[in-house]
Write a structure and sequence with these properties.
The complex is a heterodimer of chains A (112) and B (113).
Chain A lengths: L3 E2 L4 E5 L4 E3 L2 E2 L6 E7 L6 E6 L5 E3 L5 E5 L4 E6 L8 E8 L6 E2 L3 E6 L1
Parallel strand pairs in A: 2-12
Antiparallel strand pairs in A: 1-4, 3-9, 5-6, 5-10, 7-8, 8-9, 10-11, 10-12
Chain B lengths: L4 E3 L2 E4 L5 E6 L6 E8 L3 E9 L2 E5 L6 E5 L5 E5 L8 E8 L8 E2 L3 E5 L1
Parallel strand pairs in B: 2-11
Antiparallel strand pairs in B: 1-3, 3-8, 4-5, 4-9, 5-6, 7-8, 9-10, 9-11
The chains are: A mainly beta (112), B mainly beta (113).
Chain lengths: 112, 113
């Protein structure tokens, strides 16, 4: 079955620490990959997306993600987090159909 | 450009009642998808509409239904509400040729008592 796994459910970091959130998907066909962010009290926002081409994708607010096809992964990274990055992060995959399948989300807390 | 809007933002209903939620997509977007978000299950896909036709459907019972109007606005209806239907219902819109690149509204928080 098509699925998306986010192994880190809750991550706690201090400001300036580096961040990497894992995302793995099942199935080996053509995929389109996304990371969404949900800040407290706000709606889901698209952080970055990958359709094809350069597997290293840069998004807003200094985030980037790398698509590694051989590992079925699309991990989110940021070199130095800020308190304002506290949010819930969702990985989503489109398996060449018309719908998105979301991971269960990773709650990130950044302390000053 | 205005974002996706959803009304109402908050709703309290009683078990057995029915509810209708509304979504207005970003101007020019023709695809509208609905999701249910709960702490335990995360985001679960309900259905997607394009040009007034349901194009995709998730694994929800028939009590959950939707429709789309000619101006791309969409409504979602839940009949015979159950306590487990308490959730944040999210609407997302997208261009018709890239329905998976979705932009979300703020959601409707439904509480069933």
């Amino acid at each position: 079955a098509q699925s998306v796994s986010q192994h880190n459910h809750h991550v706690i970091l201090s400001e300036a620490a580096s961040l990497e959130l894992g995302c793995n998907y099942s199935y080996g066909g053509t995929v389109n990959l996304f990371w969404y962010v949900q800040y407290p009290g706000q709606h889901l926002q698209l952080l970055l997306k990958y359709f094809s081409g350069d597997p290293l994708v840069k998004g807003i607010k200094g985030f980037e993600a790398e698509f590694i096809k051989s590992k079925f992964s699309f991990n989110l990274r940021k070199p130095s987090v800020q308190w304002s990055d506290t949010a819930e992060y969702f990985c989503a995959v489109n398996y060449n159909t018309d719908k998105l399948i979301f991971g269960t989300g990773t709650r990130l807390q950044v302390f000053p | 450009k205005a974002g996706v809007t959803q009304t109402p933002r908050y709703l309290i209903k009683t078990r057995g009642q029915q509810v209708t939620l509304s979504c207005s997509p970003i101007s020019g977007h023709r695809s509208v998808s609905w999701y249910q978000q709960t702490p335990g299950q995360g985001l679960q896909f309900l259905f997607e509409y394009f040009s007034e036709t349901q194009r995709n459907k998730g694994n929800f019972p028939g009590r959950f239904s939707g429709r789309q109007f000619s101006n791309s606005r969409s409504e979602m209806n839940v009949s015979t509400l159950e306590l487990g239907d308490s959730a944040l219902y999210l609407c997302a819109s997208s261009w018709g040729d890239r329905p998976y690149e979705q932009y979300f509204g703020p959601g409707t928080r439904l509480t069933v008592t």
